[in-house]
TrEMBL record:
It comes from the Bacteria. This is Cytokinin riboside 5'-monophosphate phosphoribohydrolase. Its EC number is 3.2.2.n1. It catalyses: AMP + H2O = D-ribose 5-phosphate + adenine. Keywords: Cytokinin biosynthesis, Hydrolase. The keyword Hydrolase applies. Signal peptide: none annotated. It comes from Sunxiuqinia dokdonensis. Gene3D superfamilies: 3.40.50.450. It is an enzyme of class 3 (hydrolase).
């Protein structure tokens, strides 16, 4: 199984987030899964690459040529694919991965995980999507999701598009037992006031 992990590029985050990333990486490596990620040598991206290799797993990094020009390629990406830009990077990551996990991260991580949720909602794929909610990092995002459901911006059934894990074990267990759901029909009659 190829698991795409979206994560932070920051080197200034709390050690709790680093510890969980290391734990996830060891589980990926021990389960002989292949990691797919952004391929950079910064933040949790580098941590996850390094630790998956240390645990015996395989790694694939996808890095845009602009970032590669800034010498940001990780030496722990056993296979490094250079994309022409960020859009192509995300497309390659989505196409080659069997599942997606979001560790805590910034704007890039949010953009990546929300895009795969949206594409699943629109039935472009039926792959597993997991948030690892270390320290309740994503609680406010989930509150925003709930407001979208409550105020009819999104169907409540869209809660089934993703899974919220408290830790890496829950995330990996979910991936190992995942069965693609019946597609949720996006096209429904728009509710009237």
């Amino acid at each position: 199984m190829k698991v795409c992990v979206f994560s932070s590029s920051s080197n200034a985050i709390d050690p709790a987030y680093i510890d969980e990333a290391i734990h996830l990486s060891h589980l990926i490596g021990q389960q002989k899964m292949t990691l797919v990620n952004g391929g950079a040598n910064v933040g949790l991206m580098e941590t996850v690459l390094k630790e998956v290799v240390a645990a015996g797993g395989q790694t694939i990094g996808i890095l845009p040529e602009k970032l590669n020009g800034h010498k940001l390629a990780s030496e722990y990406a056993q296979e490094l694919i250079i994309s022409k830009d960020m859009m192509e990077r995300k497309s390659i990551m989505r196409e080659m991965s069997d599942a997606f996990i979001a560790l805590p991260g910034g704007f890039g991580t949010l953009e990546e995980i929300l895009e795969v949720i949206t594409l699943k909602q629109l039935d472009y794929h039926s792959k597993a999507i997991v948030f690892i909610n270390t320290n309740g990092f994503y609680n406010h995002l989930f509150q925003q999701f709930e407001r979208s459901f409550e105020e009819n911006f999104a169907k409540p059934s869209y809660r089934e598009l993703y899974f919220v894990a408290n830790n890496s074990e829950e995330a990996i267990n979910y991936l190992e037992s995942y069965t693609p759901p019946t597609p949720i029909n996006k096209w429904y009659k728009v509710p009237q006031k």
